[in-house]
Design goal:
Structural class: alpha+beta
Number of helices: 3
Strand order of the largest sheet: 1-6-3-5-4-7
Strand content: 35-45%
Number of domains: 1
Keywords: Signal
CATH topology: Barwin-like endoglucanases
Oligomer: single chain
Order of helices and strands: HEEEHEEEHE
CATH superfamily: RlpA-like domain
Largest sheet: 6 strands, mixed, barrel
InterPro entries: RlpA-like_sf
CATH architecture: Beta Barrel
Radius of gyration: 15 Å
CATH class: Mainly Beta
Length: 120
């Protein structure tokens, strides 16, 4: 069976959207971020923290790349830790550079909502 690249892209988007989460993104800080126990590869991507239960349930994993959408802007980050205060929610923490990439000043705004994120 033959699939062109557009069909494959459409199918990939459809599968990925099933695993999308919608929540609030908080600016990462010492009180809402715990680093992953394993060492992730060096990356230029911004840092993402997810609820510990997402990792325990296998719905997210340390070192995974995440797409994040906010107000029409899409950026990518890497899960480098957990957000204990995000437990049992679809909320995440983002590094300051990810806030900047979606057009938000992290010196004046500490949370944005709604954000849609997806583990790739």
């Amino acid at each position: 069976m033959f699939f062109d690249k557009f069909t494959i892209a459409f199918l990939a988007i459809g599968v990925a959207s099933v695993n999308a989460f919608t929540g609030t993104a908080f600016l990462q800080g010492q009180d809402n971020f715990e680093i992953c126990p394993n060492t992730c590869p060096r990356t230029s991507l911004g840092f993402v923290g997810v609820a510990p239960d997402k990792i325990a349930e296998g719905r997210a994993r340390c070192c995974a790349v995440v797409s994040i959408a906010y107000e029409g802007k899409n950026v990518f980050g890497m899960i480098l830790g957990t957000c204990p205060s995000c437990a049992r929610s679809d909320n995440i923490t983002l590094s300051a550079n990810l806030f900047q990439q979606v057009g938000v000043d992290p010196t004046s705004v500490k949370e944005i909502s709604p954000v849609v994120w997806n583990v790739l």
